Structures are given as structure tokens and as C-alpha cells.
Amino acid sequence: MTTLTVWGAAKQVTGSMHLLELDNYNILIDCGLDYERNGDASTNEVFPFDPASIDVVILSHAHIDHSGNLPTLLRLGFEGQIICTQATAAIAELLMLDSVNIFLSKQRRKSKRSKKKHHAEKKPLYLQHHVMDTVERFVTIAYNKPFSLNGQISVTLIPVGHLLGAAAVIIDVDDHHVQKRIAFTGDIGRKGAPLLNDPQLLPQVDYLISESTYGGRQHSNDNLEQILIDSITDACIKTPGRLIIPAFSVGRTQALVYSLNRLFAKGILPKIKVFVDSPMARHSTEIYRKYANELSQEAQEFYQRSGDLFEFENLRYVESLEESRDISNFFEPCVIVSSAGMLEGGRIQDHLFQNLQNYYCTILFIGYSAKGTLGHRLLRGDPIIKLRNRELNVYASIRKTDSLSAHGDHDDLMDTIRSQSTEKLKNVFLVHGEEEAMLALQTSLNTEGYTVSIPQKGERIELA
Ligand SMILES: [Zn+2]
To answer: What pLDDT, in 10s, does the model give residues 373-383?
Structure first.
């Protein structure tokens, strides 16, 4: 008997974690941090199963909502291996270590407060040595090559764009001489993304667990290059100001730097200074360089012509905090790319603090900002923003584009699922989306003859 239990990302977008129970063999697909629980130790720390009962973990990609609870799983008794691509292993290590830093800085803030209130201190969810233990469990496999887990089960990873190393997971099971194929889409990227190949179509499967983040929503047809030209022209050339672009350090920053590189190489714009101010961006760029052979044809051709994807004459990576402070007050027009993408923490906050009240500043959003974040408040048009106990008038201009979104939209998700025959595909399980998005996708899929379920968290479903 084979059963599926969705333990995370059920009617929500974080905490991806799916349990496949086969005869005496338990596979956990992803083990992400659940942000809806605020990345809080007390809740992410409790697994609804015994971590020691899991035989193997398969990691679809490195984003922390898919990988970020792996060190906890190990800490609580998991003794198996973690299967993923090489690039995923490298990026996951970087992101999990960054999580440790976030936990520790949260704890420092809390302990300052609790000293005043005499509250007990909470321990961080995991520490650096737990991450290193986790990294030792990675077993990396190539795309599109079936890997045997035991005599009856094999796993294949299929590239799906989204992030370097990201994959859909295909599991082939010989269930008492009945062959079953189960697929998990992971997060599906967009076609024509600046650095990555288009998602590869999945083979025919019996059961499909699909993400649904952008169900019911379409991306705009924004042309990224034109948006960058217009934003730089308006913010830095027509007026001598600065353009601040909040960007997640891994993936989005590399796509942006590569796009700027292409733009300046064409000679359309004068060589305005570009600062990439995020220590983690520097490290993740190294990973993108190392696995450049996995990037799109177009990126590889550009690399052949120009010698580097992520370096150009007027670009500077900022390392030290002093240097970072200096560029906040850099007197020439410039572009500043910094993290965090939703403006919650990171060096971007220094740049905002210095520049929100500056008429000559433009902030260009290139990613999603969740409700409750500073990014969301700025995009909503709040005229006054509270930052570091000060109320700042927002005089900077705000712009946005979704052209660098890492997720496919409704039509992209439909295209992925449509490649499956309605006769052969027994059921589509929707995960990793708000309920509204899932319902929109369900409706479209039902119209085309697919059977679709929206699993409840913890519901055990038999894959007969
Ligand atoms: Zn992702």
C-alpha cells in the first residue's frame, strides 16, 4: 500500500513537507520551514511523525520553505540520506546557514527584551553544527537519471526552472508488481526566465502533487529590459538620483545582475554605477558560476562572448558594513541592489532608512512582498513608514514589476499539468498555494477533465 500525507504547504505556501509511506519504507519530500508559524522554534520543532521513521528525504530545491527544517529533522532523530541535485545542496547549505544567523539575531533581540521582562529565553531552532551535520547527509544526483532507493523504488529529478538546481521529483514504485509513478512538481519556474532553462515537461504519471502558488493569477507582460531602461533613465539620468532594487540574494539577484550586464553591454545606457550590497549574494553568485553549465543556452552564449555573466565594468559587490554605509550616501547617481527582497531585515533597511525621504530616490520592487512586510506597506502606498523607531515620510518613488517572478502563473501551471493524459492521471493534489489560488486552479483543471483534490493538512490519502 502507498499513502500520501501532506504535512506542510496544505492550503498555504510555506513549510513544504510531504510523506509517502510505502511498504516499510518512508520517503519525506521536502522539509521546509513554516513561516505561517513565524519560523518559530516551538512549532517547527514538532514533527507529526517520528523523524527516525523516515528512511530518505528528497529535496526538490533549496528555498528555505522547502529545505529549512532539515537540520531540525536530523536533530530529532532522522538518520537517512537527503537526495537532491548538486546545485541544490550548495545553495541549501548557504540558506540554512543564513537561517541560523536569522535565528540568532532574533534571539538577541528577544533576550534584550526578556531581560527587561524576565521572560525565559527560547533556543534557536538549530545551530551551525546542525547545518553541517545535515550537509553531510546530502547525496547528489544528476537530472533525468533514475536513482534506485531500493529494489522497488527509484527517484528521478527533472529540471523545472525556478532556481538553480530546482527539480520536480518523480518516484517510481513497484507496489507488489503494480507499477506506480508519483510526481511532485516542486516549485515550477517561468518560461523565458533570464538565466534558467524553461521547465521540462514531466513524464506521464499516475498521481501528481502540484504547486499552485499563482493559481488564478496571470503575470503581466512586462518586458524586464525595458523596465530597467526606463527606471534607470528616470531615476539616475533625467534626475541625478539613485535606484534601489530590493532583491533576494539567491536567484533573483543573479537574474537581475545578468540582465543589467546584458543591458550595459548593448551600450543603450551610460555606465551608471551598480552596487550589489549583500554578502550572501556574492556567495550565491559563486555557486551560479560553478554550475553555469546548467544555465540557459542564451546565458551560456553570453558567457562565451563576454567572459562573465555576473561581472561588468561599472558593477561593484559590496562586502563590508562600512562600505555599505558609504554607498547609502554615494553622491553620484547609482543603482543599489540589496536584500532582503521583502525589506524585512538585511542591509536594504539601511538604504531605505537613508533614502525613503529622498525625492531623488526610486525603489523598484522585482519580487513578491507578503502581507505584514515592510515591502508590502510600501507597495500599498503607505505615506509614512515606521522604521527603527522613526516615522519616515515616503518621498521616494515606488515602482514594481513581476517580470522576475520565479513562479509560473496560472497558464504555466495549466500547461505543466495539461501534458498529462486525463485518462492516465488518476488524481492531482494541489499544495503550496493559498486556498483561493487552489480553488481557481481546481476549477480550470476540472473543466479539462482532471480529478483534483485539495488535501487537508495531515489527511492520509491512499494511492491505490
Ligand atoms: Zn521555491
So the answer is: 899 999 999 99
- Top-tier CATH class for 224-400: alpha beta
Distance in Å, CA 213 to ligand 1 centroid: 10
Task: Return residue ranges of the chain for CATH 3.40.50.10890.
Answer: 224-400
CA of 404 relative to ligand 1 center, distance in Å: 13
How many angstroms separate the alpha carbon of residue 85 from the centre of ligand 1?
A: 14
For 27, the grid coordinates are: 520517503
Q: Locate CATH 3.60.15.10 in the chain.
A: 3-217+407-462
Cα–Cα dist 131/334, whole Å: 37
Q: Which helix (H) or strand (E) holds 194?
A: none
255 pLDDT higher than 90? yes
Please state, in angstroms and rounded to a whole number, the distance separating the CA atoms of residues 212 and 210: 6
**Cα separation of 84 and 63, whole Å?**
13
Q: Under 8 Å CB-to-CB from 331, ≥6 apart: which residues?
A: none
Q: pTM here?
A: 0.93
pLDDT of residue 343: 83
Q: Under CATH, which number does the domain 3-217+407-462 receive?
A: 3.60.15.10
